Structure formats: C-alpha cells, structure tokens
Amino acid sequence: MNGKKGSVEIDIPPPNKAKQPEDGNKSGFQGFPCKAWIWSAWEFCKDDVDRVIFSFKVGLAVLLVSLLILLRGAYEIFGTNIIWSIITVAIMFEYTVGETFNRGFNRALGSLLAAILAIAVGELAQLTGRIAEPIIIGLSIFLIGAITSFVKLWPPLAPYEHGFRIIIFTYCFIIVSGYRMGNPIRTSMDRLYSIAIGGFVAAFVNVLVFPMWAGEQLHEELVNSFNSLADSLEECVKKYLEDEELNQAEFSEKVMDEFPDEPAYRKCRTTLNSSAKLESLADASKWEPPHGRFRNFFYPWSEYVKVGAVLRYCAYEVMALHGVLHSEIQAPYNLRIAFQSEIQDAANQAAELVRSLGKDIWNMKRSLKTSLLNRVHSSTERLQRVIDMHSYLLTPHYDLPDNSSNPVPKLSHVLPTTPYDFLDQDDDVCSTNHEKSSNHLTQNLTESYYEMMRKQSRRLNSWPSSEVDPFEKGGGFRIGILPQMRAVKSTAALSLTTFTSLLIEFVVRLDHLVEAVDELSKMAKFKHEDL
C-alpha cells in the first residue's frame, strides 16, 4: 500500500475476455475435421467399390416401392398399407444375394405364421365376449413373446432368429389392430401382400442390378487365404536367413501386433481370423441359385469351410515361425546360414504347393499333386538328414575347427561377428592352455569389438535384459562368465532347432490340406487335369 513498510501489494489481473470460437469454415463444423472425414470415406469406397454399388441398389429399391405411394393411381389401389413394402425392403435388403434371400425367407415365413396365429386367436377371442376378449389377447401376446424369444436362443434355430423377431412384431400388430378395427383377417391380408411386394422388389433389384454373389466371395476369400499363407511363409524364412543381425525391438503391445515391414504377416493373421466370415458366406451361399461358374444344384459350400479350417491349422505353424523370428534369443548368424539352402528349399517347395492348391481351386480344376508333394517331402527329409548329420553344431561343447582344409559348410569362412563365434574360438584355445588363451584374447580384441562384447554379454547374461554390466562389476572380462554365456549359447542354438521343427511340422500338415482340397474338388465336380 503505497510502498509503506509492512504493507502487502495485491495485484488483481483484469478479467479475460471470452474466447471467441474459431471460424467453423476451416473445419466444416467445430471439432469435426471435414477434410479428414471426406478423405477417409473416399479411401473406404476405393477399397471396395461394391460398397458404393450396394448403397445405390438399396436406394433404387426403396425408390421403386415408394412410387406406389407417391403416384396417386397406385396409392388408390394399395392404400396406406403399402408403407410395409418400404419397411420390408429396408429390413430384407442385404449385401449379397444369398443373405437377401435368407432374410426374405425368414420374413415371409415369420409373417405368414404370425398372421395365421393372429387370425385364429382373434376369432377365438371374439367368441368369448367383450369382457374376456382383451384378457385373452393380452395373455396370447405374452405367451407368443416369451415362447419365440426362448426358442430363438436354441442353437439349431439360431439361423432363423430374424424370423422369430418378425413373428413377435407381426403378431402383436395384427392382433391389436384387429381388436380395434374388428377385422383381423383384412388386416392380415393387407400386411401380407404389402410384404410380398417389398420382398419381390428387393430380390428383383439385388439379382438383376450388379448382383453380388456370396458364393463368388467365398471362393475368392479362400483362394486369397492360400496365397497369403504361402507369402507369409516365404517372407518369414527369408527374413530369418538373410538378416545377419536380427534387431529385436523393445517388448510392447505394438511389437506383438504390428510389423510394418512384414505385410504378408498381417494377411496371415487375417486368415486365422477368417473362420466367422467363411461360415457366414457359406450359409448365405446355400440360398443362392446356380450362377456363374457354380452351376450345380446343392453345391458343396460347406466343404469350403472345412478347407478353410485345415488352412488355419497350417497357418498356426507359420505364426509360430514368426514368433521364433521375433524372439529375444536367436541362433548365431553363421549357424543359421549353415542350413540356409536346406531350409530355403523346404520353404519354397511348401509355398509352391500351397499356391498350386489355391490356383486349382480358383480355376476349379482337379490335378494330381503327387509330384509336388514328393518334392516337398524330399526337401524336408533332406533338411532332417542335414540336421542329424550336423547336430554337433547345436551342442554347447562344439568347437570350430582350426583346419581350414576341412571346414564346416558355410561356417569356416564366416568371420566371428557375434559373441557365440568368439566363444567357439575361445573354447578351442582353452582346451590347450588356459593362460595362453587369456593372452591371445588380450592381444586380438580390438576396442570396438570389446565394446560390442560388453553389450552382448550383458544381454546374454540375464533374461530378460538387465542393466547389470559384468565388465563394469568385475573390472574387465573374466573367465568365470564363460559358463553362463555357454549356457545361453546352447539355448540360442535350440532356437534354430525350434525353427526347423516348426517348418517340418508345417510340411506334415500340408498332407491334410491336400486331402481336404481333393475332397472339395470331388464333391464340387472340378474338371480333372493330370499334371
């Protein structure tokens, strides 16, 4: 207060002016990014043009039934009950022809049963007099609602769940309207022909205007799953063999779910989640008439689901291979490339067989896969023999030979770039003289290699990785660390054994896939073609 001693000065800030809202024209609506939404919608439409076609087809069908109300002549004939045609089109029209027919059947059957029950109960209630009539109608509504709601939960009747809903809705409408208007039969007939008109228009538009057949979608979806599985297998094996240093990212949900540099992995994961989609398309396909290349009545659509199940059975092994590829403990690079040709050949032969099966399904041809299957089995047996012959490479007591005239295939010419190679060389030296080994290590390790060894030993000395540095704690490299590193080296070598075992198991499961495809080709009467 005027700067006097002991006074306190209090500053009161002026009131802030109300913040003016930003111009909504920049984003269309406040907080709603119009430009981003439009771009997202465009990408969604571009991803599948059939979605846009389906939308226009629904609009066309609704317009056609609406003309019965908009045109005076048609309105005088059909009256206000024609509104149920519009409701029928909106409820019945589905993405594929099979789903539309399925919905139409459920709606027609449900409406017919509900109309019969409503007429019977309405006539019976009228005979009981004005006092008992509303009681009987109310009790019937309760019983119909409870019984149909219970029955639709029964698994065998789950596909007709929509029909049971129609029964409740139609019965309540007819019985109540008949009670007030006094003529349930007339009300039922008006509703039935309105539903018939709407169902006919929906089926007519869906079949004749750019039809989308569930059978063709099921056929294409299964073939794409074959190609995705083959691509994912080749991609996984290629990365496992070609990456000299498999850089492992930090463990997180993002690492588990997303691999940006592995597009085939995502497709393979989609194949594992395709069970519900294949079953839905197969159920819809059963309602479709013979069309296109599927001109047989009672086409075996259920066999597509069985083939898809066996395909997922094989895809589980590919996902397991990806798990080994992205695991923390990896086999040394020189150990991986020692079996490179055998692993690569087995994977390529298996992928070729999977693509060939998918191609046969796409072309609807039946060909003998004896030669391809024999080549796959031969390459796998060769891989097994090589693993058995060089199993000593996968043991922790193996030492790299000093004699370059008799080298291990693809191992002797590879420079030591990992601590495992260094351990192999160190074990050989330690077998002759412990003191000589220590002097040899001191003379040959460069500073850059020494830094690399510090990081690698810290990672290998603990699981999961820890911040403890044995070099810093011990003041330098000590021989006491070698047993621990040898143990981890043995575990790392088993990583290669796991990878090859999963690959061999994948080939074994291909036999079941060939049998499933052959059974499909027989039942679907594919054209026979000998290789």
From TrEMBL:
PANTHER family xrefs: ALUMINUM-ACTIVATED MALATE TRANSPORTER 10
Subcellular location: Membrane
Region (Disordered): 1-26
Broad class of where this protein is predominantly found: membrane
Source organism of this protein record: Gossypium hirsutum (Upland cotton)
TM spans (from-to): 52-71, 78-98, 104-124, 131-151, 163-180, 192-214
Coiled-coil spans in chain: none
Membrane topology per record: Multi-pass membrane protein
Transport in keyword set: yes
Family per similarity comment: Belongs to the aromatic acid exporter (TC 2.A.85) family.
Name listed for the protein in its UniProt record: Aluminum-activated malate transporter 9 isoform X2
Keyword line: Ion channel, Ion transport, Membrane, Transmembrane, Transmembrane helix, Transport
